[in-house]
Specification:
The complex is a heterotrimer of chains A (about 300), B (about 400) and C (about 350).
Chain A (H helix, E strand, L loop, with lengths): L2 H21 L2 H23 L2 H4 L27 H37 L1 H16 L2 H11 L4 H28 L2 H8 L4 H37 L10 H10 L8 H29 L1 H4 L3
Helix pairs in contact in A: 2-4, 2-11, 4-5, 4-7, 4-9, 4-11, 5-7, 6-7, 7-9, 8-9, 9-10, 9-11, 10-11
Chain B lengths: L16 E2 L29 E12 L2 E13 L4 E5 L6 H8 L7 E9 L2 E2 L5 H11 E4 L3 H4 L6 H11 L5 H14 L16 H13 L5 E5 L7 H18 L2 E6 L2 H7 L2 E6 L2 E7 H6 L4 H8 L51 E2 L5 E2 L7 H7 L39
Parallel strand pairs in B: 4-9, 4-10, 7-8, 8-9
Antiparallel strand pairs in B: 1-3, 2-3, 2-5, 5-6, 10-11, 11-13, 12-13
Chain C lengths: L16 E12 L8 E12 L3 E5 L6 H8 L7 E6 L2 E2 L4 H10 E4 L3 H4 L6 H13 L5 H11 L18 H13 L5 E5 L7 H18 L2 E6 L2 H7 L2 E6 L2 E7 H6 L4 H8 L33 H4 L2 H4 L3 H6 L12 E2 L2 H4 L5
Parallel strand pairs in C: 3-8, 3-9, 6-7, 7-8
Antiparallel strand pairs in C: 1-2, 1-4, 4-5, 9-10, 10-11
Classes of the chains: A mainly alpha (about 300), B alpha/beta (about 400), C alpha/beta (about 350).
Chain lengths: ~300, ~400, ~350
């Protein structure tokens, strides 16, 4: 067997170990199962929902039809099936959740590692900036950003991305400081490794577990934030998202007229997805961070 | 700070600690009844007597034996040193004596303190014993002292609780104790972080002495300290133990420290005592190849034979979960013989008041009596003590030898 | 690996220094209201080609700081690090070049190896830093492992540090240094965290590397026995200064400085007469006493022997000079130099 193949064997075995540890966490497994189901639904949605059913004009149902055999979750103000809307909304919610979490984790990791590695003056400035962003009310900031930029999904992603990173930056910086204090960093420097080498080869792989768990938790946060922004009317009006559905329901007076099926399903969807991601994230944290794992 | 001790092992009235032969539980069939010389069978004269002590840790991968049948006795006023490398079980022995092991440990055997079995004691009695019967001095003084309490209060605690002393009485005793360990009395008002490493270790010793115990267990008491501070602390311990007439069990990885401080020395390997005898004799001329290698690993400055000739043993201490058959030291032994794979050696007499768990100490007659196969012909009759020295020029690749092949290859 | 040609041993003549410190001082800004700590306070020390020098002292004497300064890991406040006759600049390029030719081995191999890197990656790291990934990388890694005593090397490639014993980990760390074919190894307490029986094997390895490849070494240690075991020359450090230096046979068999004598006398089983236990704690580099820095603890001064030799005043008021970095036995002590000594 070649060396590369051997390396792969080792990696696969390490991954299998992680998978086993993860499988031992019931909450994490439940969260993962729900997420897989939701992701499959979101991906296959175009196969069983056609565009016409989602358009304002092409919908066939009656206005505010209660749940029944034809429409399991009833219809909205335009006669569209709420079930179809919620399923379709999954696509936007997950896309925004993942991309926004990715943006903010990437930013947070970069700033956290750099601040932790260089310390001193550079680190201080970076951390003060982080603190400034952290105390800034993220929602207000996102609202402001979404308001001044064009109303599109991309805007929402950017707005969430640039407001959610300070937590990641702090966690990553703390982890970086812990890694930097270990002797293998001194060895790498004594071998002639520069800043980039130390950060990329030693610090990053050792903070990666934290980052991965942080990402999962942030996805939940981003989905909630997206829903909030859409609910406040800052989402892309051309797309269907969970927050957007709730906003439309509110505008249509769903609360006062008792049309619960218009509001509750997207609300539950948001809660379930956010909870699943959080449970996965916590389980992942426990698996990848041995210090947490050893705690009974 | 050489302690004043009789150099003649047979000197009348010399306090002694002796280690007697024992095997692992259940291995009685092949064990000869060879008792260690000088080993009095009765426990009456021993302050501490440990018989067939075994400790195993329960883990996810099954039970891991840490101590595999250790027996020794300690007379009042004597000092026994237990030497060995990391993982040999020496600290587990120390903790087992006062039942300080974690819940995952399974202990068997007997630990008699003044004839009373510590392992069978009720909690209240055990607490009393931990204060007044035998107290323990740990290695890391910083971690053993509570950082938020003053030194004086920590020393006074057992006095107030156990001796039911009044506050004034306790204060006077604390001052006396601090003076005994060479700290000024006003140090009672200090917090641990205000003290240096050596001073903290002195405070730990004062705590251990508070209830006038008759036995001190010192677990690596000087390991984290510099040579000069180590010398100070060892001198202090030696003086206190001699002046107060208490017994001491000192545990260390450093054979030289033990040889200097203790009357008798026991060397542990893979959870067993493999050699035991008067400290100077064991250090100068060990009968077990491991004892010899360990003492050779501590060179004497000025000794021409160790100049530019560091000595060690190839290989690594064994994995307690996968001990080799026969003698556990076999894979690293420079003097290994064929019969070592078959015989699980126990402590056999190996000279005046000495014993060693190595087939090479047995005369052909003794070997026959013990049911041990005879030595290879060319080796018969040679005295084992002198060749205990390991070869200095071992092939380094031997270090890699015990490692199993990775299964992917 | 090609051994440097100029690696004479036991020739008597001082070999040309490869690496050295000249008037080196390192001070650290004091924390929380304490003064500046003069960790290294004026040291000349040379390491000749193919020479093993032991830097001996208690914790806090500045020996580790000096070792790190020699690698450019700590910046000297005064003085220079000299490598192959040239003063070391502290620009990244110069430092990188130095760190290819001088290697550091740390005390605790468990911490010194990245737990997420395989043995192969750990050993190849230095080569990748300096020459990138080359086709013959695997050969070099295998050779370095073999030279560090891990044979057959292929068997260790894919292991992780936690799968190895302490001694094997230290061999991996040494192999990681050897792969760059260095001229000097700076080893900071290379065996202090290893078991006694394993220690000798690692020290033999350092000796063999010197004998076979002319690899010079500075071994930083608190253990005089280790110096006796492998070093050619010893330098005893006290409170930031080298107080006695010379061939190991001289320094350790016939010590002249009262501090060296005291250190040797307290070794257990030393058998060299009455141990001279110095009272008190090792002093504080933020408050270095005037005169001879050892005078407050000096047993010779305390016993009146210094006064008898007529140097007591100088001990208290005059600093003994800095010792030169190489050559024969020297001692920084007024009393040892006093002509009236009896």
């Amino acid at each position: 067997m070649s060396r590369a193949a051997l390396v792969w064997t080792r990696r696969r075995r390490a991954l299998a170990g992680y998978a086993r540890a993860f499988a031992g966490n019931r909450g994490g497994m439940a969260g993962l199962a729900v997420l897989v189901l939701i992701a499959l639904t979101a991906l296959s949605a175009p196969l069983f929902i056609d565009d016409a059913a989602l358009s304002l004009t092409g919908a066939e149902g009656g206005r505010f039809q209660p749940p029944g055999p034809d429409y399991p979750l009833g219809t909205d103000a335009f006669g569209r099936s709420v079930l179809d809307l919620v399923v379709w909304g999954t696509r936007i919610s997950l896309t925004v959740g993942f991309l926004a979490a990715f943006v903010s984790v990437a930013l947070g990791t970069l700033i956290g590692v750099v601040a932790g590695h260089f310390g001193g003056w550079t680190g201080n400035v970076l951390m003060r900036v982080t603190d400034w962003f952290a105390v800034l009310p993220a929602l207000v900031m996102a609202v402001a950003l979404a308001a001044v930029m064009t109303r599109s999904t991309l805007t929402i992603i950017i707005a969430i991305g640039v407001t959610a990173w300070p937590t990641t930056a702090r966690v990553v910086r703390a982890q970086t400081l812990a890694v930097e204090a270990r002797p293998f960093i001194e060895r790498a420097r004594a071998l002639g490794g520069g800043h980039a080498h130390v950060m990329l080869r030693h610090v990053l792989p050792n903070v990666m577990p934290v980052v991965l768990a942080q990402t999962t938790l942030l996805v939940a946060e981003a989905i909630l934030m997206e829903a909030t922004l859409a609910f406040l009317g800052l989402g892309d009006p051309g797309t269907i998202s969970w927050g957007g559905i709730i906003q439309e329901a509110r505008n249509a007076g769903a609360i006062s007229s008792g049309i619960w099926w218009y509001m509750v399903p997207p609300g539950i969807a948001i809660a379930v997805v956010a909870l699943s991601f959080t449970m996965c994230g916590r389980a992942l944290e426990g698996v990848l961070n041995p210090r947490l794992r050893e705690r009974p | 700070m050489k302690p004043t001790r009789p150099t003649n092992p047979g000197a009348a009235g010399e306090p002694s600690a002796d280690v007697r032969e024992t095997g692992p539980p259940g291995g009685g069939a092949e064990r000869p009844g060879a008792a260690g010389p000088g080993g009095a069978a009765g426990s009456a004269e021993h302050y501490l007597e440990v018989a067939d002590l075994s400790v195993a840790y329960r883990t996810a991968g099954g039970e891991i034996p840490a101590v595999r049948g250790v027996s020794f006795g300690l007379e009042p006023g004597s000092k026994l040193g237990v030497a060995g490398e990391s993982g040999c079980g020496k600290s587990t022995v120390a903790l087992a004596l006062l039942r300080l092991l974690p819940a995952s440990a399974r202990i068997s055997g007997r630990v008699l303190l003044e004839g009373e079995d510590v392992l069978a004691m009720r909690w209240g009695r055990l607490r009393a014993v931990r204060w007044a019967g035998a107290s323990i001095v740990f290695q890391g003084a910083m971690h053993s002292l509570n950082p938020v309490h003053r030194i004086g209060d920590q020393i006074a605690e057992p006095l107030l609780l156990h001796d039911r002393a009044g506050p004034a009485q306790a204060r006077a005793r604390v001052a006396e104790l601090l003076e005994q360990v060479g700290l000024p009395a006003w140090r009672a008002r200090s917090y641990p972080h205000e003290l240096s490493g050596g001073q903290r270790q002195r405070a730990m010793i004062a705590m251990a002495l508070a209830c006038r115990p008759r036995l001190i267990i010192a677990d690596e008491p000087t390991t984290a300290l510099d040579v000069m501070i180590q010398a100070q602390i060892l001198r202090l311990i030696d003086e206190l133990v001699t002046d107060l007439g208490i017994s001491m069990l000192m545990i260390s990885h450093d054979l030289t420290v033990l040889a200097d401080t203790c009357d008798r020395l026991a060397v542990m390997y893979a959870g067993r005592i493999v050699e035991e005898g008067p400290a100077d004799d064991v250090f100068a001329a060990a009968r077990h190849p491991y004892g010899a290698a360990l003492s050779a690993a501590f060179p004497r400055v000025g000794d021409p034979s160790s100049r530019r000739a560091p000595r060690g043993l190839p290989g690594d201490p064994p994995d307690p979960a996968a001990l080799p058959s026969g003698c556990a030291f076999r894979p690293r032994c420079p003097e290994v013989q064929e019969r070592c794979a078959e015989v699980d050696p126990v402590l056999w007499p190996a000279g005046p008041r000495r014993s060693a768990a190595c087939v090479r100490v047995l005369s052909p007659e003794q070997a026959r009596a013990a049911g041990v196969p005879p030595a290879p012909a060319e080796e018969a009759g040679t005295g084992p003590a002198a060749e205990g020295e390991p070869r200095a020029d071992r092939d380094p690749q031997a270090a890699a030898r015990p490692q199993p092949q990775p299964e992917e290859m | 690996m090609s051994a440097p040609a100029d690696a004479p041993r036991d020739t008597g003549a001082p070999a040309a220094p490869v690496l050295g410190a000249a008037g080196l001082r390192v001070a650290f800004a004091g924390r929380a209201g304490r003064g500046t700590a003069r960790a290294v306070d004026g040291v000349d020390l040379d390491i000749g080609a193919g020479e093993i020098v032991a830097l001996v002292g208690e914790s806090g004497c500045g020996k580790s700081t000096l070792a790190r300064a020699l690698l450019g890991l700590v910046r000297p406040t005064e003085g220079r690090v000299v490598f192959r006759g040239r003063a070391l600049g502290h620009r990244p390029r110069e430092l990188k070049e130095l760190r290819r030719r001088v290697q550091l081995v740390l005390q605790d191999p468990t911490g010194a190896l990245n737990p997420r890197h395989t043995v192969y990656d750990a050993v190849a790291e230095g080569r990748r830093i300096h020459s990138g990934s080359t086709a013959d990388e695997q050969e070099h890694v295998a050779e370095a492992l073999a030279r560090a005593g891990l044979r057959p090397p292929e068997r260790f490639f894919l292991r992780y540090p936690h799968e190895l014993s302490g001694g094997q980990r230290q061999r991996v760390a040494i192999a990681g240094a050897l792969v760059l074919q260095p001229e000097v190894i700076v080893a900071d307490e290379p065996v202090a965290s290893l078991d006694a029986s394993v220690r000798g094997e690692i020290l033999q390895l350092l000796l063999r590397l010197r004998d076979d490849y002319g690899l010079a070494a500075l071994v930083v240690t608190h253990d005089l026995g280790l110096a006796w075991n492998i070093a050619d020359r010893a330098a005893v450090m006290y409170l930031g200064r080298v107080v006695e230096t010379g061939p190991v046979e001289d320094v350790l068999s016939a010590p002249r400085h009262p501090y060296t004598r005291a250190l040797l006398s307290v070794l257990p089983e030393s058998g060299s007469g009455e141990p001279q236990v110095l009272a008190g704690e090792p002093p504080d580099p933020t408050r270095i006493p005037g005169g001879c820095r050892f005078h407050v603890r000096c047993p010779v001064l305390a016993s009146g022997a210094a006064a008898a030799a007529g140097v007591a005043e100088r001990c208290r008021g005059e600093e003994p000079g800095m010792l030169s970095g190489s050559g024969a036995a020297q001692v920084a002590c007024h009393w040892a130099h006093a002509p009236e000594r009896v």
